[in-house]
Amino acid sequence: MTSPQNELLQPVPDDDGAPFWEYAARGELRMQACAAEGCGELRFPPRPCCPHCQSFDSEWRLMSGRGRIWSYVTAHPPLLPAYAALAPYDVVLVELAEAPQIRLVGNLVGNGNGNGNGSAPKPRIGAAVTADFREHPDGLPLPHWRLERP
Amino acid sequence: MGVSTLKDVTAIAGIGQTPFAKQLPESEKALACRAILAALDDAGIKPAEVDAFASYTMENTDEVEVAKAIGAGDVTFFAKTGYGGGGSCGTIAHLSAAIATGQATVGVAWRSRKRGSGPRPWTNTAVQLPTPAQWTRPYGLLRPADEIGMLTRRYMHEYGATRDHLFNVALACRNRANQNPAAMMYERPMTRESYMSSRWISEPLCLFDNCLETDGALACVVVSAERARDLRQKPVYVHSAAQGLPAQHHGMVNYWNDDPLSGPSWTAARHLWKSADFGPDDVDVAQIYDAFTPLIPLSLEGYGFCGRGEGAAFTEGGALETGGRLPINTSGGGLSEAYVHGFNLINEGVRQLRGTSTAQVPNAATCLVTAGEGVPTSALLLRS
C-alpha cells in the first residue's frame, strides 16, 4: 500500500463522536439526543452535556436518513495527494429531515450497486437525498448520500 | 460605581513591519524581533520599557524568546488569543485592558509568519483534530477555502450574490495594493477577465478569492492615551474593542446551528457599537479581514453597514474603492498586500488615522479593523 500521506483520511473519532461512527458501520444513521425527561433535544456535533437543559444523559436516536442538500463545493487542487487523484470532486452539506440545523458533510454516490458504477451525480441545492451505507468505491467513510430523484 | 470603560483610554503609538514576500530568508523569530523593534522605534520607546506582550495562536515565537531577544524589561502581562486570524484585534484589546487597569504600561502585539515559504496548515495529516475534523476532512472538505466555499455557495443561492460581487472585493483590494509599494501585488493589476478566468480552488471560489501566502511580520505598541500624547507619533486611540464567539458557533465549519451565515462578526459588532460614540455610518475607512472575498459581504452585514443579505449588493458601484461609500483594505489587505493573519490591517488602520496611507482617505478620523470572520473573532474601532 501507499504511505499515509497518499491515502484518504479516515475519521479520527473523539470520545463523544465514536458512537456515530460505530452505528454508521452498522448501517444506521443515529444522532445524539438528550435523554433527560422533558428535553430530548438533538445535538451535533456530539458533546458531553445538553446545551438546552445541561443534562449529561444522552441516547443515540435513529434518523430516517432523509435530508436535503443545503450547499456544496467542488474541490480542485492543491489537495492532499489521494484527494487530488479524485479531483475535481463535489462535497455536499446535507440538512437532516428531522433536524435541519444539523447538516452533515458528505459525498454523493450514484444509484447503482455502489461499486465504482460510474461518476456521482451533480448536486443541486434543495435536492432530496437519502443516506447510503454501501462501501464507497473510492474508500470514503460512511455514510454517503444518494439523490432521491437523480 | 460605574463599570470602567476602554473608550479612548489607550492608543497605538507605534507600528512596525518587515518586508512581505513569498520567501524571506530570516526565521520567524528574527522577523518578529525586527517588526517589534521597528514599532518601538516608530513610537520612540526603549525596548527596556516593554512590560506587556500579546499574540495570537499559530504564532510560533513565544513571549520568552521575543522578550529576551529585544531586551524587554520585567514583563507583568502576557496573553495569547485563540483562533488564529480571529485573534488579531484581540491582542490590542487585551493590551488595552491591561494598560487601562494598571497591569502594565507599554504593550507590544505582534504577528510573525512564514506561510509563503512554509507548509500549508491543512496539509498536516498528523494533526487530526478530532473535533470537528472527523465530520469534514475525510469527505474531502480539507481546506479553509472548502469550508468557506460551502457557506459562500449557500449565500449566493439565498441572496443572489454572484462572482461579480466577489470580484468587486478582490479588485478593490488589488487596486489599493497597486498604490502600495510594500504590497506583494504592487505591480500586478487585476482585470475582470483575469479574475474570471483564474483557476478554481473550491467552486464557487477561484484563486483570486483566496488570500496571499506570505512571509512577514508586523507589530504595534500600545500605551496609555496620556503617554501617547507625549510621544513622537500622532496617537491613534483605541475607541472600542470586542471579541465575538456566538452561541452554538463551530468555527469555519459553522454548519450545525439555525443560521450558519450569521458569523462571529455579528456578536463582536453588537458589543463594539454598544460601547462606541459613533456608528457604522460614521466610519471613514475599514480594514476588513479578507482571507477569502466572501468574508467581506458577510462582515459588512455583521458590522451593520447594510442589512442581512445586502452585503454583496453593497459592493456594487465602486463602494469599496477610494471615494466610495466605504473604502476598505487600503493597503491591499490579505488578498493583495500580504496575508499575515490580519495584522497588516491593524497597521494600515493606524496609518489611515495618522494620514500616512499610500491610499489615504482624506481626513479619515475613524476606522474599523476586524479579525477573521468565520472563526471566533475580534474587532477594533480606532479614532484619531
What's the arrangement of secondary structure elements?
The complex is a heterodimer of chains A (150) and B (384).
Chain A: H1 18-25, E1 30-34, E2 58-62, E3 66-75, H2 81-84, E4 89-96, E5 103-106, E6 128-132, E7 144-147
Antiparallel strand pairs in A: 1-2, 3-4, 3-6, 4-5, 6-7
Chain B: E1 10-17, H1 28-43, E2 52-56, H2 63-70, E3 77-81, H3 88-100, E4 107-114, H4 130-133, H5 144-159, H6 163-177, H7 192-196, E5 200-203, E6 205-206, E7 215-224, H8 225-228, E8 236-244, H9 264-274, E9 285-287, H10 295-302, H11 311-314, H12 333-336, H13 343-354, E10 366-370, E11 377-383
Parallel strand pairs in B: 2-3, 2-4, 9-10
Antiparallel strand pairs in B: 1-7, 1-8, 4-7, 5-6, 8-11, 10-11
Helix pairs in contact in B: 1-2, 9-10
Domain ChsH2 rubredoxin-like zinc ribbon (chain A): 21-57
Organism (chain A): Streptomyces coryli
Pfam families (chain A): OB_ChsH2_C, zf-ChsH2
* Major sheet summary line of chain A: 5 strands, antiparallel
What distance lies between the first and last C-alpha atoms of chain B, to the nearest angstrom?
Answer: 29 Å
Measured by DSSP, the beta-strand proportion of chain A falls in 25-35%
Mean pLDDT, all residues of chain A:
90
Highlighted features:
heterodimer, A: 2 domains, 5-stranded antiparallel sheet, two-stranded antiparallel ribbon, 2 helices, 7 strands, globular, B: 384 residues, Peroxisomal Thiolase, Chain A, domain 1, 9-stranded mixed sheet, Thiolase-like (chain B)
Structure description:
The complex is a heterodimer of chains A (150) and B (384). The N and C termini of chain A lie far apart (35 Å). Chain A is mainly β. Chain A folds into two domains: 12-62, no CATH class; 66-147. Chain A is built from two helices and seven strands. Residues 113-117 of chain A have low confidence and may be disordered. Chain B has 13 helices and eleven strands. Chain B has 384 residues and is an alpha/beta fold. In chain B, 60% of the residues are buried. Chain B has one domain: Peroxisomal Thiolase, Chain A, domain 1 (3-Layer(aba) Sandwich), CATH 3.40.47.10. Chain B has a nine-stranded mixed sheet. A two-stranded antiparallel ribbon of chain B has the order 5-6.
